[in-house]
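The material for today's practical consists of a large collection of protein records. There is nothing in a record beyond a sequence line and a structure line. As an example, a complete record with its sequence and its structure tokens follows:
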Amino acid sequence: MTFKSHFLINLLFLCLLFSHNVYSSNLKINGLSKLNFDDLQALTDINLNKELLTENDINEIIIDLYNSDLIYNVNLSIDENIFFLYIEENKLIHNIYINGNIQIKDELILQNLIAKKNLFINKSDINKDINLIKNIYVSQGFNNISVNVSTEIFSDDRINLIYSINEGIQSKINRIKFIGNNTYSDKYLSSLISSKSLNFYNLFSSGSNMNIDNFTFDVNKLISFYKSKGFFDVKINFDISENFLNSYILSFYIEEGDRVKIEDIIFDKKNTKFENFINEFDLKFSKKLNKNKNFYD
């Protein structure tokens, strides 16, 4: 065999060996263990063998990789016009642990998480789960809640996902005031709302939690009640003020406005067949209306 033939055979062998593992001249990829070049190329429409990749190409490649369940994270660095991508391959979640939670049980948190055992870990889902956990705590009056997430390696392709919670101190409503309610008593209006104060006789109960959504719901409930009683121009707002450490006063400010009265009742008696029934109903209804001082109700 001649030297030329030997050289051509070696060249052909090298071409076959590297034909599926050659990246663009200005792209270097690190961090792969289970995935290979063909796997990456299947995840993006950008040709990874392109002679020179642009910044737009790199950005699109990164977006495509992030959108794949096979990739957990991608870090980019640039040195002398060469793009270095460090790829962190995704792993399956073996188990999920909740640490630091005293007031909220594991079951309530776990059943609401997007992340689940035996699914790939996903950064977007984890961020959503952090907000979800915070919202659960805020609904219970924990307004200084913090949540951190960490992972621990279980095996080559599996990790444990750990949510660490710092609950902070629960805020309570220890007094509820109604201001401007001339028609209905504080006690009656209190019976209509979901917020309850933490009084001296129920110090060991849960009391009412500092949840703005609950207070807004209560305002709408009170407005609906007043309008059902003929106060069509009623205006209600609320305010919260600190009473002492982590205890607050909830105040509802009410402008009742004028209450509508019924001046007359008119029946269209086109069908005389029901005249006796209508007359009897008219008599009963008029008595009820008169007892209510003719107020709309």
Summary: The first strand starts at residue 27 and ends at 30.
